[in-house]
Amino acid sequence: MAQIQPVEEARFFRSYSRPKSSGASSWWLVRITGLALIPLLVGHYILMHYNPASGHDYGETASRLASPWFKGLYLAFITIGMYHGLIGIWNIVRDYKFKPAVGMTIFGVLVIAGIIFLAVGWNTILTFDPLKP
Question: pLDDT, tens digit, for every residue of 17-34?
Fold first, then answer.
């Protein structure tokens, strides 16, 4: 008859009893942002690549960014895409199992780069003046 292992060996196994530290919320957010990116990406692709003047003509871009609806759409696209992409990169980095200091440094660089790129994108969209050529 097999004996039950002592509780002492349980310290080597991951505990799933604490949902806040399990990463389940991050897993769901990646799936939700991925689903949200599908219509945003398809719409962006159709708008920019099936209408040649749309993505390469200043007048078309200015008229599109004059609409609050398009501004909101682009802000959502930038924000959701940045989150989804950076979480994906972070998951790839985590697979390499660096030392904690190296991992946290890479995480810090990703967060700072994400904040900078997100700020530049938001600033570009929110401060765009269609009357200035």
Answer: 555 556 677 888 889 999
